[in-house]
Amino acid sequence: MWKLPKKLVWGLIRMEKYLLNLLGEYRVCAELLRRGLFATITYGNKKGADIYVVGEEKKVAVVEVKASQSKKFVTGFYQKYKSPNVDHPDFWVLAAMSESRDRFFVLTHEEMERTQCKRNCPGEDLGWEEAAIRSTNGVDNVLLPSVIDHEDRWDKIARHVRASL
Predict the structure, then answer these.
(1) What is the mean pLDDT of residues 124-129?
(2) CATH number of the domain enclosing 35
(3) Residue range of the domain that includes 135
(4) Half-sphere exposure of 161 (CA within 13 A, CB side)
(5) Which of 121, 108, 37, 48 is nearest to 78 (CA)?
(6) Domain total for the chain?
(7) Which residue from 77, 62, 58 is spatially nearest to 28, judged by alpha carbons?
């Protein structure tokens, strides 16, 4: 049984993490469908992806969704992806959920890595593995201002799934 939230954030009731994550996944899936892309949510606690997007020629994009009611998105990036060779999503969609307007920031996995590296090691130009080694304390997160250039960049996913094999 879920509890009634007690605190308002950005004009939206502070939600339990589980419900916020579900809201983010459904909203991202709806946005993809609205843009004419076949998208489906994966279910269960052992899933490897939040959303699969399938193109006309069966080209698939794997999408990781991170929802937030604040200006910070918890990614856990280097805790999970210690090298570029670890199986990973093709895209990340960071969903900023608010009562007035939901906002979406679409990044490739490589763009997410660069953004996370800049957050963890500002002013340094580190390689992936070195940044991962230096990011062992806490859980990675990125701030909304650092992803602003990726707002509503759904075209990245559309191009990926529409590319011929």
Answers:
(1) 92
(2) 3.40.1350.10
(3) 8-162
(4) 22
(5) 121
(6) 1
(7) 62
CA-closest candidate to residue 134, choices 85, 92, 82:
82
Would 1 be classed as within a structural domain? no
Tens of pLDDT along 62-114? 999 999 999 999 999 999 999 999 999 999 999 999 888 999 999 999 999 99
Closest CA to 95 of 35, 139, 32: 32
* Contact of 8 with 14, CB cutoff 8 Å: yes
Residue 14 identity (one-letter amino acid): R
Please state, in angstroms and rounded to a whole number, the distance separating the CA atoms of residues 52 and 157: 11
Report yes or no on 135 lying in a domain. yes
Residue 14 covered by a domain = yes
- Does 5 score more than 70 pLDDT? no
**CA-based nearest residue to 154, from 104, 89, 118, 88:** 104
SS3 for 97? coil
pTM of the model: 0.88
Classify residue 61: in a domain, yes or no: yes
Whether 109 and 49 have beta carbons less than 8 Å apart is answered as no
